[in-house]
Amino acid sequence: MTPNNPHLEQLEAESIHILREAVAEAENPVMLYSIGKDSGVMLHLARRAFYPSLPPFPLLHVDTRWKFQEMYRFRDRMAAETGMPLLVYVNPEAIEKDINPFDHGSALHTTITKTEGLKKALDHYRFDVIFGGARRDEEKSRAKERIFSFRSATHEWNPKNQRPELWHLYNARKNPGESLRVFPLSNWTELDIWQYIRLHDIPVVPLYFSDIRPVVMRDEMIMMVDDDRCRLAPHETIEQRRVRFRTLGCYPLTGAVLSEARTIDDIILELVNTRHSERQGRKIDADSAASMEMKKREGYF
Amino acid sequence: MTHTPVVSAQDFLEQQNHLTLLRFITCGSVDDGKSTLIGRLLWDSRQLFDDQLASLSHDSRRYGTQGENIDFALLVDGLAAEREQGITIDVAYRYFSTPRRKFIVADTPGHEQYTRNMVTAASTAQVAILLVDSTQGLLTQTRRHAYLVALLGIRHVVLAINKMDCLGYAEAVYQRITDDFRHFAQTLKFHDITAIPLSALQGDNVTHPSTNTPWYSGPTLLEHLETVSLVSSPGEGLLYPVQWVNRPNSTFRGFSGTLERGKVRVGDVLRVTASGQTTTVHDIITMDGSRTEAIEGQAITLTLSSETDISRGDILTHAHHPIESTDQFEATLVWMGEEPGHAGRAYALKLATQWTTATLTGIKFRINVNTQAHEPAKELALNDIASCTLSCSRPLAFTSYDTSKSLGGFILVDRFSHATVAAGMIHHSLRRAQNVHRQLLTITRNDRERMNGHPGAVVWFTGLSGSGKSTLANGLEIELYAQGKRTYILDGDNIRQGLSKDLGFTEADRIENIRRIAEVAKLMCDAGLIVLTAFISPFRNERDMARELIGAHRFFEIYVSTNLETCEQRDPKGLYRKARSGKLPNMTGINSPYEAPLNPHLVIDSAQLSPDEAIANLLKCLDSPPQSH
Predict the structure, then answer these.
(1) What is the pTM of this model?
(2) What ipTM score was computed for the predicted complex, to two decimals?
(3) Cβ-count burial of B412 within 10 angstroms (0-12 exposed, 13-18 middle, 19+ buried)?
(4) Structural domains in chain B?
């Protein structure tokens, strides 16, 4: 750690404290690994927190089957590099009914593959403490959530009655079937994440960097054509444009941005000067007012 | 503040390397403009994005209270219920930075019913901005929040006198409110109070010095936040709570934790507070390699040069700078549970990485937060703040809250719902626990048990009145006596008429009654007897307290589950009849609850089993010792 970035050092120490505290009090912890930059930082922090031991929990990827191809390759590479067990779970109902964003729309696709998939995975493996890489600066209902966020036996979040959370004293106690979502990156911002990635040379999916990619320019978003399942409207054409992604998710639902940022420094510079928030490219957040809060109450991260 | 585009990542990163982090809260009365102020700070420091602004202006038209103008409150009121009701329920955290500092700001709710959320935010803040509506002056809630801010140990306060535009920016108003507040805050131990006249709505003195207040020469709010220097707490010396024992293989044994205070170097001699053992720091391990020293706030792993028995919950200090441990102390509690707190009740307690069971032994007084007067209290209701005494089942390493928030702050957790029901701040130990040594006795329980030929035990019958507890206890004692075992029955008659004759049947008195019975049963058990107790003992909490006091491996919980209908038909003492006719309050099963055991050692339904079958089951159950759970 460079001695002269007190801010990042403080954030790092806080996250490590949270990770250790949760693991010490958990019976069956797991880390949700969504392959994005935040997951990457969280995974790196976990390796630092428990070094020289391996982090004492598996990684869980709740797969929607619609992520970018590069994300799948990157996921498998990181699992191999860290030596941590990787569990991949797909909601069987999504396979059975072939749920996809084109036929079923973004809302239903997300509910079945992500929210329901996550809940089924947690029930299946009986995890009681679940690490997630969400940050409070991402969205206004996340800004309200505790670091140790209590979930009922049916995985629901009750935002009107959260446990008080004082100092750095976390209450991880719960009854059988109940669980805690734990967010070690709560106090990080998007810029902190990139500065930390730069400082520690943390690998990220190449999609974050600008490159010439096949895209369809739509009014609401720039969609990258990642495989042959992609459906276009009759008038649409595929163009080659220089784009990158600020967040990663299911490719038909994740908007690219036109960008020349090819290095981490370029990205940092772009972020410092941007006029748009990170989640702007996410179709699922815009589905309805307070949509993130609704999804979270139902059990989404 | 102007916003010039940054042209080089290098310049930006270089600047970032010198930024420190400040955490502050905004608090004060409802409608004093807390959320508006945060919105203004974010707006003026250019931390709002275009798409956020678009959705803000959309929301403002839909839910806002500012007509066609932007309602900044909607920026921080992130929950649907908050936007619909126009109130703040829980803390929102926002992040922004200037070229001089990074900030985490927590917007706190003003309503009294959400005090626990306000306290959550205040517990991690270094500075509090206390808003006052200049048209209203100091209100009850302003005083409440000032008191809570001081209680949680925030030493720097900004008195933000808001809505100055409504009164023509009158200096006299500013002066009067400042004087009122300084007078009120005399007892609150703030290090500094900075009063700033402003208008969050118009932007006066928020980030720009206002031309409307030529009489004010102090800093703008943002300038003050960027430059305020923080006092450190008066405590000193290393504090290292062990969080996790790091054992990747049989040759490595490290102790991971966060340095809560002080500095540690390789070669330092450390002391384990609980055991008094000393050991030397062999290495300070991080993923980047070994270090020779680590400082406050860092999360590290230590290896030690000798084999020392250390586990999670142990607190390490320098050997020459030890801290106290105690099992009884006095503290201020902020009650946060829906269910009231009673003296005599036991809770799980967490302090740093230590968990123990603590009994609330006394409520000295409740503090009227509005007047700071001390008032007598029988119980602790939601949002009460009280000075209390607590007693723990094992000694805790601690400091006073004044000298370390980490080793002086604790939470109480309900042992069934596991909800956090209180936050506590330790004043001092009630005795010099380290100087109290138990009288060592020559004849021990083991000796007495050997002479008796059987171990001591407590068979705890619980169930409704008339369920058959006394009958079963009596039958079991006859059998045990016949086997040559030493026994004694504690029941309502010999307790209520003697030891507990000063107690009635309110919830608090019932708790105290059971505590006394448990203490007596423990002594008799220690004397080597098999003690049979027959009390309704309706609350799980008290039965668990008895189990803990006596020791789980000697405590047999027998649930006599005979249903209410049968008990009521039997009605051996005529109590049900009285209760049904309204002459007997607090009758368990009728107008007072009974909480059935979750995991009893044996369940007996006297309506289903014959007395002989029941006794046979009991004898069999006594042969297998209880599992602790």
Answers:
(1) 0.80
(2) 0.92
(3) buried
(4) 10-227 (3.40.50.300), 240-318 (2.40.30.10), 325-434 (2.40.30.10), 445-622 (3.40.50.300)
